[in-house]
Amino acid sequence: MLTASTSKPKPAARPVVAAQALARLPRWPLWLMCLAYVLPGFIGRDPWTGEGVAFGAIWQLADGHSAWLHPTLYGHALGGGWIPYWLGALSLHMLGGVLGDVLAARLPFALLLGVTMAQTWYAAYHLARRDAAQPVQPAFAPPIDERAYARAMADGALLSLVACLGLLGLGHEAGAALVQLAASSALLLAAALMPRMRWRAALLGAAALAALALGGAPALALGALLVGFALLPHEAFAGARAPVVAALLLGAAALLVALHGGARLTPSAGWAGAAHALGTAAWFLWPAWPLALWALWRWRESLVEWHVLAPAALLALTAFEALRAGNHPQAMLATLPPAALLAALALPVMRRGSLAALDWFALMFFSLFAFVVWLLWLATLTGFPSQPAANVARLAPGYHATLHPLPALLALLATLAWGAVVVWRAGRHRHPLWKGMVLSAGGVTLVWVLVGTLWLPALDYASTYRPLGRSLASMLRALPAGEVDAAGLPLVQRALLGYWSATPLGTAEHARYRLQRADAPRPPRLRVLWRGHRPGERDDALELLGP
User: 539: part of which helix (H) or strand (E)?
Assistant: First the structure.
């Protein structure tokens, strides 16, 4: 006689956490680290090539040379959506007279980076408060506090995000990538808030989908819509399906508007581009990606639980879109928030030896990098050691280093803070969950602060178009009035030179003057009126031709 089976499903794996692991990370060091991470790169420098097109479009939009419903740069339609140009142009228009054009145009993107950090923290906090994400309660000890555990996991997620190497450069440039990064973290937060705050989560999710659609990532928005509809039967949406469906429909409407306005679903980059993207991801997502893989393995019995499924699904979606983009590292920025959340899930189940190895790597790598930064700065300032000073002089000929007390003091304080973090981490009685990411996040912040204080003048000297543009403007003022044809130059050069010279560098067939590369063929009956180049780029000189 057959009997019904009485075996129960195997419960999902949950971590075992000691009470000491829930020690609170003091808020003021965390806020100070985030501030020290966000500000360098956004302040104290001119627009460089990486953000030249975005800055040029923002400048032309704010000055009324471009239509708000169809932003262009010298008549060229731009990829990357509308939202980044709208944000930068509004800020420049309102605050340009107070902060200056460059800083005012960058301000919204600095705020977006800060918003991304906050949204990542709160997403991890709310996901960690779900019952399936909580640790095993001890039998003969005080119970684990739910909020303290969620806070420790959120701190680990934020530290993991800051530690990612790919966020350093691209995360501090004006452009569509930061809009997509903030939208990715907003999607995570919206998922984490379900079903506790249904309509708030729905509105946030709809706004995130609209930001993706109108911010240059319509393919990612479409993928998020499809994944959202596919996950509707999940128990996390029980009782909240009406708000979720409303949010998805609003996102679909925004996607249709974006596609009608000229946005395109980018084609696949092919196997070669995908292979290149995988190689780039190895350093871009370090150290989050090995921790995320370990978390997926250790939580494999909980893959259908929402605290694992939500970040894993978004990471898979954003990683797939990054592979489709191929040779565009900007597309990988959206993978960082979900990767950071999965990395945080690895912290309570990570072996002590693995965390120690990660700490040793961070300690050695970032300490050595900081030493190199200080050495090169002292060499450019004093001429000793001579070989590093000669290398810097060759890369930035004509640059003369001067001692600026405030940046030097900030760099010294950052280095002393790094030493204090190392001493703290070496203590034997430190057991917080987030301890494994302190050295990685602190080391990245240290290097970024040192580069943004000690090296920034030399880097800006070698990368800015300001002297070149002003030299061109001086020559044009001394010549008879006439249009300048710059059709042969890349759009980014035309954007930055046009801003600094205050001269339209568009396309004009019968223009009086022509600006081109020095190695380009010269039209007959035109002579060289001006020649210039950026420091260290003699082979990339420009010429102004005229009658």
Answer: none
Looking at the DSSP bridge assignments, the partners of residue 513 are 484
- Please tell me the distance from the alpha carbon of residue 483 to that of residue 514, in angstroms, as a whole number: 8
- Predicted TM-score of the model (pTM): 0.94
Q: Which residue has the tokens 């040192």?
A: 450
Task: At 299, list the tokens.
Answer: 């939580």
Q: With beta carbons less than 8 A apart as the criterion, state whether 382 and 463 touch.
A: no
Instruction: Name the residue type at position 91.
Output: S
Q: What is the DSSP string of 303-349?
A: TTSHHHHHHHHHHHHHHHHHHHH-S-GGGGGGGHHHHHHHHHHHGGG
Burial 272-305 (b: 16+ CB within 10 A, else e): ebbebbeebbeebbbbbbebbebbbebbeebeeb
User: Which residues are CB-contacts of 299 (< 8 A; sequence separation ≥ 6)?
Assistant: 12, 13, 305, 308, 345, 349
First and final CA of the chain: distance in angstroms? 105
Given a contact cutoff of 8 angstroms between Cβ atoms, the answer to whether 439 and 425 are in contact is: yes
- pLDDT tens digits in sequence order for the chain, 547 residues long: 344 444 444 445 678 787 788 888 899 999 999 999 999 999 999 999 999 999 999 999 999 888 888 888 988 888 768 999 999 999 999 999 999 999 999 999 999 999 999 999 999 999 999 999 998 877 766 778 899 999 999 999 999 999 999 999 899 999 999 999 999 999 999 999 987 888 899 999 999 999 999 998 999 999 999 999 999 999 888 888 899 999 999 999 999 988 877 787 766 666 666 777 777 888 999 999 999 999 999 999 889 999 999 999 999 999 998 888 776 788 899 999 999 999 999 999 888 888 889 999 999 999 999 999 999 999 999 988 888 888 888 888 888 888 999 999 999 999 999 999 999 888 765 678 898 899 999 999 999 999 999 999 999 999 999 999 999 999 999 999 889 999 889 999 999 999 999 988 888 778 899 999 998 988 888 899 999 999 878 778 999 999 8
Strand residues in 383-453 grouped as ranges (E): none
Which own/partner pairs from 220-228 qualify as long-range (CB within 8 Å, at least 24 positions apart)? 220/180, 220/317, 220/318, 220/321, 220/334, 221/251, 221/254, 221/255, 221/258, 222/255, 222/265, 223/317, 223/320, 223/321, 224/187, 224/251, 224/314, 224/317, 225/251, 225/252, 225/255, 227/313, 227/314, 227/317
Beta-strand relationship, 484-485 and 513-517: parallel
- Separation of alpha carbons 431 and 354, rounded Å: 15
Dig out the tokens for 254 from the structure.
């925004």
The domain limits of the chain are: 117-349, 352-463, 467-546
